[in-house]
Each structure stands twice: as structure tokens, then as C-alpha cells.
Write a structure and sequence with these properties.
By secondary structure, the protein is an alpha+beta fold. It has 16 helices and 26 strands. The longest helix has 19 residues, at about 305-325.
Length: about 625
């Protein structure tokens, strides 16, 4: 790239010395602070002057944006008065100067924490901040022609995006992205625009903030005012945001929000002159709340309850802190009597502290209630395992082989449905609704799903092999209703649950705004309840394609770990019939669950998310750490 003029280059280098700090390395405070200083629409010289003065007064830079013409870049910044590690900053640097500075301080153990750029690819100027903080792996690339290519630069290390800038021209975009290794499994999303796709900010914002506790972290802005928003699920108290502000409007907005006790935590600029615009995020706190560890419940049925409690709590704390899991339960029972029930919270103080009787979305552990229902019908001579299911329901399948599907086939996942071949109807409600004569003007029902499936060919001949199916239990729940004349959920309540608190987990996010347990997922998807809408909804609330009211028999129920442990004391965890050794696990957007009958004891584990570091982490927890715990700490008597 072309170099800056000698005068501008000297200004850039000299300003580096003037704003470097030598404060001791300490953790950044998490206090709410009114000691926030902001400036915007200032040139490089003014930025350097203000930086020097603020540093001398003990301020630290938490937001930096460079924008406008590379020959006379403007700056917007937020500084907070707080202790922290030493840092270095740079501005108005051409690519060569910036890269030299970056590598120099990287070699001294510093980490890039802010980066910005403005101008065409061949003559852009850069600004940044590097801090002496403990981040083992971090990655930064400012020559990307596609933002999604950043993942190719991180060597399979999971990262959290800390900085972003889309610069260049509309004909030749460039992307500068900074990522830090994701320690603690932080959850965040960022919505990139590319030359072939521009994010609809309003729609993205609505979808992301429908997820409970999610908020905008940064609203990165390009020169042509395209917003690249990033969202996180950390807590900074009350917050607000504004976009497309002029300089005057930004000043007025800062004054208005300050009167409410909200301070700017991110300002991004784009454009110059009359085209200068800003985005801004406000919050009560200038940095996120820390998480707190809380445990509830008792262990009463082991030979050494205190030692068992200490070991179990240690196991769960290690897992939850490493994987960022906020809410969990664990319970052990013997013949339906609870020996241990512990609830765990690794969360900010604005989340509920989990109690042993709180209910979690169960995912596929819901299927064991369906199996118990079929067992009840067979025991009461209202059904037999060999009954052809479609004949029983009065359907004539398009594939003649489906006439041979029995109740037992559906229970055993051998009915001829292979989701790896034909898809999983339980997550296809939107597609099915749009295929109906009503063309998506109404949501698909369970009956619609059944009629959709019976019109399709089977994936294999019934009985040939086993392929896990969510559709089978859905169909069987319809059988329960059809035979008894009672809605499936009412049948469970009357005949199966024996007073246990097991409920339907309703799909709509609006039904869960006050829930104590937050089923957490960063993912969103199209709304299956409103098939013609382009609106995105959170994964646990239909964004995965499922409608839980119609999928109660397969993954739509909610209960506590204690209720699950009690239930499998008299019903099969896996299979159909009474208690038997075996296990069942559930995995769904926003939920991960496990139940097992082992020897004489029954136990259950519930988590409020499946977005932990890896599936291996969960497998190690259930099969090794908790398995060893149950082996090493015998029950009393």
C-alpha cells in the first residue's frame, strides 16, 4: 500500500509514545461508572491530544472507531476511568507502519484489543489498541476479501470476535477482523454483510434481542453506513442503542441517556461531512457483570453425604465454568425416593438461582413418557405391539410397505424412516405448512405432518434396520389420543405422571419471558408457527423448525432432574415397560438432558443449553465424571 506523507507518519509514530501507559497489570473492574469520556468527529491530532490527557488521568480506551477519508481520518472513542494492564495505541498509520507496530508489541506479550481502518484497500489507514493481557491465542487479519474467510486463519481455535471493520470501496471491500480465543465458551453472534448479501439490521436486531438476556455489543459501521452488529448474552444492566445519528443527534442522545444513568459503551462512525453518521450502544455498566457460583439442594442418601456433596459440586463446577453453562440440575433416586438433588447456577445476578424443583426443557428424554403411555395402553388391553399403525388410524400410505409398520416398529425406530435420507419432519413444520393447500397461511399440525409423511415413500423396508426417528413418537402420541379420545397431555397427567411436575414446553418465546430457567441458544431460524413470515425466532422457540405443542411425544416436555429420577424408578429409561437398566439422552436447541438406571439407582442430569465446548465435554461429564462419582460414593444402607 502507499505510505502516508512524512508529516502524517511522524505524527502517528510520535503519538504512540505519548499515549502508551505503564499501569500495573490488574483485572479490569466490573463497576458501574460515571467516569466515562467520549469524543467523536475529531481528527487524528485531536484524538492524540485527548488520548494523552485521558491516559494521564487514569482512563482506558474501551471503544475506538476510525472513519472518513484516509487523508484526514476522523475518530470516535470511549474512555473509562479504571485500573487495568498497560496498553499502547496507534492511529493514522498506513498498513506497513501498523503491521510493524502490531508485531513489535505482540513480541512483547501484548494483545490487540481494538482495531479499525478506513480508506480504499490500497491506501487505508489503521488505528488500534494493544494491551498487556493474558490471551494465549488471538488472531487478526485485515486483508480479507470475505469475512467468512476469517475462520480459515484461526487454526480451528474457537474465537470470539473482538474487533471488526469493513473498509475499502463498494467495488472492492476489505474486512479487518480481530478474534480472541474463546475461554469459558462465551456466546456471541456477528452478522456479516458481503458484496452479495447485506444484512437487514432491523430484522437481525429484533431476532437477536428476542433471545432472553441478549443485547448488542457493538454496531460496527462502514463508510456507506452498513451496520455489522454483534450480540452477546452478558449483562450490563439496562441498555439502549441508536443508529443513523448525525453528530448533533449523537450529542443529544448521549445527554438524554446519561440522564437515565446509561453511558456509551460503543460508538462507531462512518462517512464524512454531511454524510457522517454514528451508531451507539448505551448501558448502565461499562463492563459486563461477573458470574457467581450458587448451589441449592441436598444430598441425604449416601454413606458419606458431605464427601459426596463436595465431589459432586466440584465436578459440576468444573464443567459449567469451562463450558459456560449457566443452569443445571443433578438428581439420584432409589425406588422413587430422592437420595440427592442438587441445582447449580453459574450466572450473573440477574438470572434466577436454580432450585431443585425448577423445570428444564427435556428434548428427547420426553420420549420415555410416550413409551410409558404405550405400555399403559397395552397393559390395559387397548392396544397391542403388533397392530399396524396406519390401518389403526385409517390412513392409506402411498408406499405399500408402510401398511406393515407396527407399533413395535415405531418404538424400536425400525419403521422405515431415516432422517439422514428424507429429513426429519419434526423440524419441517414450516416446509410442511407451505406444502398444504393453505400455502402457509396457517401453521402445520401433527395431523398435517402425518398426512405429509404417509404421502411419501419410505426410506427402507420396515424391520430392515434401526434409524433414530423423531417422527415415530409423534405418530404414537397421535395413536394415544386416537385410541383414548383424550388429548395426549391430559392422558399423561391422568394415567402416567403420578403427580410429577411434567409440563409441555410451549414454543412461543412470549410464553417464557419470566421463566426461571432460560433455555439458551445463540441460534435463530425462521418461524414455523407463522410460515409466511420472514421473521427469525430463537432456536428453542421454533427457530429449529419444531413446534413443541405438536411434538410433545418426541421432544416437547419439561421437568426437573428429580422428577426424571423418580419416574425411571418405575418406568424404562430406554425401551418400553417397567424399570430396567438403560439410559436415554436428549439434545435440542437450548437443552441437553440425560437419564440412566444403573444397578439399583436412577439418576438424571439437566442442562439449559447444548452449546458447550464440545460433545466430548458432555460425554465425559455423564459417562466418566458422574459415572465415577456414583461408583466411588456408595448409597447408604
Amino acid at each position: 500500500m502507499h505510505s502516508l506523507s512524512l508529516r502524517r507518519l511522524l505524527t502517528s509514530v510520535l503519538s504512540l509514545c505519548s499515549v502508551s501507559s505503564a499501569l500495573p497489570s490488574q483485572r479490569r473492574s466490573n463497576t458501574t461508572s460515571s467516569h466515562v469520556e467520549t469524543y467523536y468527529s475529531v481528527d487524528g491530532a485531536t484524538h492524540a491530544e485527548k488520548s494523552k490527557a485521558l491516559k494521564a488521568d487514569g482512563y482506558r480506551i474501551v471503544s475506538l472507531s476510525s472513519y472518513g477519508s484516509p487523508d484526514n481520518a476522523n475518530y470516535a472513542a470511549i474512555w473509562v476511568q479504571e485500573e487495568g494492564p498497560s496498553f499502547e495505541i496507534i492511529h493514522d498509520a498506513d498498513e506497513a507502519t501498523y503491521n510493524t507496530w502490531l508485531q513489535t508489541w505482540k513480541s512483547r506479550g501484548y494483545v490487540s484489543t481494538q482495531v479499525s481502518a478506513t480508506g480504499p484497500a490500497e491506501s487505508a489507514v489503521f488505528a488500534g489498541v494493544m494491551e498487556n493481557i493474558n490471551v494465549d491465542n488471538w488472531f487478526q487479519s485485515c486483508e480479507l476479501e470475505n469475512p467468512w474467510a476469517f475462520s480459515n486463519t484461526t487454526g480451528n481455535v474457537d474465537v470470539v470476535v473482538k474487533g471488526f471493520r469493513m473498509f475499502g470501496t463498494t467495488e472492492e471491500r476489505r474486512y479487518c477482523i480481530l478474534g480472541h480465543e474463546n475461554i469459558g465458551n462465551e456466546q456471541m453472534t456477528i452478522q456479516y454483510s458481503t458484496p452479495s448479501f447485506t444484512v437487514d439490521f432491523a430484522s437481525a436486531f429484533e431476532a437477536e434481542t428476542t433471545k432472553r438476556f441478549w443485547r448488542p455489543s457493538r454496531l460496527f459501521l462502514s463508510e456507506d453506513h452498513i451496520i455489522t452488529p454483534s450480540f452477546v448474552d452478558t449483562s450490563v444492566g439496562k441498555w439502549s442503542h441508536a443508529v443513523d445519528l448525525t453528530k448533533t443527534e449523537l450529542k443529544e442522545k448521549i445527554e438524554t441517556e446519561s440522564a437515565k444513568g446509561l453511558y456509551p459503551i460503543d460508538i462507531q462512525g462512518g462517512g464524512s461531512g454531511s454524510n457522517e453518521r454514528f451508531t451507539v450502544v448505551f448501558a448502565e455498566r461499562t463492563s459486563p457483570k461477573s458470574r457467581q457460583w450458587n448451589v441449592r439442594g441436598e444430598i441425604t442418601g449416601f454413606e458419606d453425604n458431605k464427601a459426596a456433596e463436595k465431589e459432586l459440586d466440584s465436578i459440576m463446577r468444573r464443567f459449567m465454568e469451562k463450558n459456560g453453562v449457566r443452569q443445571a440440575q443433578f438428581a439420584v433416586a432409589l425406588e422413587g425416593k430422592i437420595l440427592a438433588e442438587r441445582s447449580y447456577t453459574w450466572a450473573e445476578d440477574d438470572r434466577a438461582i436454580v432450585e431443585p424443583d425448577d423445570i428444564f426443557l427435556l428434548a428427547s428424554v420426553s420420549k420415555m413418557f410416550l413409551h410409558a403411555s404405550i405400555d399403559w395402553l397395552v397393559t390395559n388391553e387397548m392396544l397391542n405391539f403388533s397392530a399396524p399403525v396406519y390401518d389403526l388410524l385409517g390412513y392409506k400410505p402411498a408406499d405399500a410397505r408402510a401398511n406393515d409398520i407396527t407399533i413395535q416398529h415405531l418404538l424400536d425406530h425400525t419403521a422405515g424412516y431415516d432422517r439422514s435420507m428424507s429429513g426429519d419432519p419434526s423440524f419441517m413444520f414450516r416446509e410442511i405448512a407451505q406444502s398444504l393447500p393453505t400455502k402457509g397461511t396457517k401453521a402445520a399440525t401433527l395431523q398435517d405432518v402425518i398426512e405429509y409423511v404417509v404421502a411419501k415413500p419410505l426410506d427402507f423396508t420396515p424391520g430392515d434396520y434401526s434409524a433414530y426417528s423423531n417422527y415415530g413418537p409423534m405418530l404414537l402420541s397421535y395413536v394415544v389420543t386416537n385410541i383414548t379420545g383424550v388429548p395426549y397431555l391430559d392422558f399423561l397427567e391422568k394415567n402416567i405422571l403420578d403427580g410429577l411436575n411434567v409440563k409441555l414446553y410451549e414454543t412461543a418465546a412470549s410464553k417464557h419471558t419470566e421463566d426461571r430457567i432460560v433455555q439458551e441458544s445463540k441460534n435463530t431460524g425462521q418461524d414455523p408457527v407463522h410460515p409466511q413470515s420472514a421473521k427469525l425466532v430463537p432456536g428453542p422457540h421454533g427457530g429449529d423448525g419444531g413446534v413443541k405443542e405438536e411434538c410433545a411425544g418426541t421432544f416437547g416436555m419439561a421437568a426437573s432432574a428429580s422428577s426424571l429420577a423418580k419416574f425411571i424408578g418405575s418406568h424404562a429409561a430406554w425401551g418400553t415397560g417397567g424399570r430396567a437398566s438403560g439410559s436415554r439422552d436428549g439434545s435440542l436447541s437450548g437443552a441437553r438432558t440425560y437419564v440412566e438406571s444403573r444397578g439399583t439407582i436412577d439418576w438424571a442430569l439437566t442442562l439449559n443449553t447444548r452449546e458447550y465446548v464440545s460433545e466430548t465435554e458432555f460425554d465425559d461429564l455423564r459417562w466418566w465424571y458422574l459415572g465415577d462419582f456414583l461408583y466411588n460414593f456408595p448409597i447408604a444402607g
